[in-house]
Write a structure and sequence with these properties.
This protein is an alpha+beta fold. The chain has a single domain (3-386), classed as Thiol Ester Dehydrase, Chain A (Roll), CATH 3.10.129. Helices cover 20% and strands 31% of the residues. The chain has eight helices and twelve strands. The chain has helices at 30-39, 50-55, 63-70, 80-95, 230-239, 258-269, 293-300, 344-352; strands at residues 20-27, 99-110, 119-131, 138-149, 154-165, 175-176, 219-221, 277-286, 311-323, 326-342, 362-364, 367-382. Strands 1, 2, 3, 4, 5, 6, 7, 8, 9, 10, 11 and 12 form a twelve-stranded antiparallel sheet that branches. β4 and β5 form a beta hairpin. α4 runs antiparallel to α6 (258-269) and α7 packs across α8.
């Protein structure tokens, strides 16, 4: 079979509005879930503390079968960050194998809880395409992806827009059939967490806060920062079946998978709300490329001593909302921002890639920073009443 006939060689002209792609499945094993939590410093306890989940009466409807078939005892809840990446990874082969960049997310809503041992499936519907000018050699494809478990229940769905290459020598006329998306997810139909009750306050740790502690306009910095090496980028791709060509192509300097940057940013701020439950995401964007820190140093430091590039994160409280009939939780909307520290080698890498956003780099305390991620996320946070 010629490579042009392979599914993974779909280019922008091969997508048509109304197309439906069924992406296959992946089992979220306990090892994958727990390794994700460890690698990306995910401090949200519902994905890491099975005793807490049982206390809050999360009950896996498929636990008996998992014990008999896979030997999994007491399946814990899966990190919602990993759920997103698992569904995204499944769609890559059909949607974004030939992508230049993942441009944006919108209307992301989490559904039923996912438990260790669940098998998740995914399908995507093509909503529209956009070519920004006549003679375009690439264009963006808008798809809606739904991820569901082995019981046929939706666990997360979202719309994303992807910039995809055209076939070599092919050009396209200007056009736009991209569908508008809501500015905010609908809280009336959001899947809320189980009731929080009788929680020991020590679960909040040193930095954790209750819903009442958050005020609109407050800004919180991450409690940690760190680099992402090639091995950690690659681990998440392998664990979620993400085989996008740009991430393992030396010509692209192994541009880092954005899901790993998202995971790192979320982990760095998670200690501020360790008992949060993600309801969804209003919007999101990858603002600039991130390369594996060790690859940048190896290829672009030119033999000079240089630090590794690191990711640091912060978030601003955009909104706080009480939920009628739920005095154990409130909802906060945050603007999560991930930035990378740009070393001298990192500047060389960006210049070699002809990155058009060099002017977006700014200096702070003698160091250069560049925003790489912006996510408007919606989280349920326990109130003081939920604690003993």
């Amino acid at each position: 079979m010629l490579r042009s006939e392979l599914v993974s060689s779909r280019f922008v002209g091969d997508f048509d509005e109304g197309d439906v792609y069924h992406h296959g499945a992946i089992q979220i094993t306990p090892l994958r879930n727990r390794e994700y939590i460890k690698k990306y410093n995910d401090g949200l306890l519902l994905g890491a503390n099975s005793n807490l989940c049982y206390h809050l009466e999360y009950k896996d409807p498929d636990s008996t079968r998992k014990h008999e078939k896979y030997g999994i005892q007491k399946p814990a809840l899966v990190s919602q960050g990993f759920i997103f990446n698992a569904g995204f990874g499944l769609s890559v082969h059909d949607i974004s194998f030939n992508a230049i960049a993942n441009l944006s997310y919108s209307d992301l809503r989490f559904g039923a809880p996912v438990y260790e041992g669940d098998v998740v499936f995914a399908r995507s519907d093509v909503l529209g395409k956009q070519f920004r000018k006549d003679g375009a050699t690439n264009g963006s494809v808008q798809v809606k992806t739904n991820v569901y478990n082995q019981l046929g229940v939706s666990v997360v769905e979202y719309v994303r827009q992807v910039l995809v290459r055209g076939k070599h020598g092919k050009t396209y006329p200007q056009s736009n059939t991209i569908k508008p998306q809501p500015d905010k997810i609908n809280l009336d139909s959001a899947v809320l967490p189980n009731e929080y009750h009788e929680l020991p306050k020590d679960l909040l740790g040193d930095n954790g806060k209750t819903f009442e502690d958050f005020r609109i306009g407050d800004i919180y910095k991450g409690t940690s920062e760190g680099e992402i090496n090639l091995v950690d980028f690659s681990w998440l791709q392998i664990a979620t079946l993400n085989d996008a060509a740009v991430h393992h192509n030396p010509a692209s300097t192994f541009i880092g998978y954005g899901g790993a940057v998202k995971a790192m940013a979320e982990g760095e701020v998670s200690r501020h709300f360790p008992l949060a439950y993600h309801l969804g995401m209003n919007s999101g964007a990858h603002n600039a490329p991130t390369y594996p820190a060790d690859i940048v140093k190896l290829l672009y430091a030119h033999g000079e001593e240089d630090e590794h590039e690191k990711i640091r994160s912060k978030f601003e409280i955009l909104d706080t909302t009480s939920i009628v009939g739920r005095d154990d939780i409130g909802v906060i909307t945050i603007n999560l921002i991930g930035e990378k520290y740009v070393t001298d080698a990192g500047m060389n890498a960006l210049e070699a890639a002809k990155f058009g956003g060099i002017d977006q780099i700014y200096e702070e305390n003698g160091k250069r920073y560049l925003r790489v991620l912006t996510l408007e996320q919606v989280l349920a946070i326990p109130t003081r009443k939920a604690f003993i």
